[in-house]
Amino acid sequence: MKENHEELDQELTDTQTDPEAEMEAVEDSGVSEVEAEEFELANLRAELEEIEDKYLRARAEIANMANRGRNEREQLQKYRSQDLAKKLLPSIDNLERALATEVSDDQGESLKKGVEMVLESLRNALQEEGIEKIIAKGEVFDPTLHQAVQTVPATEDLPADTIVEVLQEGYKLHDRVLRPTMVIVAQ
Fold first, then answer.
1. Which of 25, 78, 151, 165 could lock onto 187 through a cystine, CB 3.0 to 4.6 A?
2. Is residue 1, in this structure, part of any structural domain at all?
3. Which domain covers residue 173, as residue numbers?
4. Which ranges are annotated Acidic residues under compositional bias (predicted)?
5. pLDDT at 101 over 60
6. Which of 139, 134, 149 is nearest to 181 (CA)?
């Protein structure tokens, strides 16, 4: 910004001339003094318009830079937990698999309850950050949210492009997909 001010000052200095030299030039040229002043006035107006234009452009550029910076900060704030969530998702998958196992004794049941509590606290933490599961089973297949890894024949109960089964949960952060849901789709 300081450079812009220095450039404008330099342009003003370059355009300013000695009034006595101008008067001598007017007398030597044979043009009337009024015409010379009108000509000089027109030149000064043109220079003023040019300087005003440069000023307005510089001001607009500064405003654009401020808006761009603000937008970038907002995006960083909105998606700040994206990398951490991507690293935690495999752990959540493993905890869900651990819960899916059958246990027969009290010790196993107690351990399963502890895993369930850990999983629930992780889910709550993700939800507080705006991370949520992508709903899939029974929904229409959407390639922006789902990844089809297998297909099954469509029936009357299962119309084409309907998700039959979820193989791995998908998650999104606000409007950004962190991991698509792996699904089986009826075709």
1. 151
2. no
3. 79-184
4. 8-27
5. yes
6. 134
Domain termination site, one of 63, 78, 93: 78
Calpha distance 148→181 (Å, rounded): 8
Q: What's the pTM?
A: 0.63
Q: Which residue has the tokens 């550029």?
A: 61
For the record, the structure tokens of 139 come out as: 């929904």
Could you tell me if 60 and 135 lie in one domain? no
Structural domains counted in the chain: 2
CB neighbour list of residue 137: distance below 8 Å, 6 or more residues apart? 163, 164, 165, 166, 183
According to DSSP, residue 162 is labeled B
Question: Which of 163, 160, 154 is CA-nearest to residue 182?
Answer: 163
Extract the tokens encoding 48. 């003023």
Q: What is the DSSP letter of 179?
A: E
Confidence of residue 21 (pLDDT cuts 50, 70, 90): low
Min mean pLDDT across 4-8, 37-41, 86-90, 91-95 is at: 4-8
CB atoms within 10 A of CB 185: 22
> Considering the domain boundaries, does residue 116 fall inside one?
yes
Is 160 among the domain residues? yes
Three-state secondary-structure class, residue 76: helix
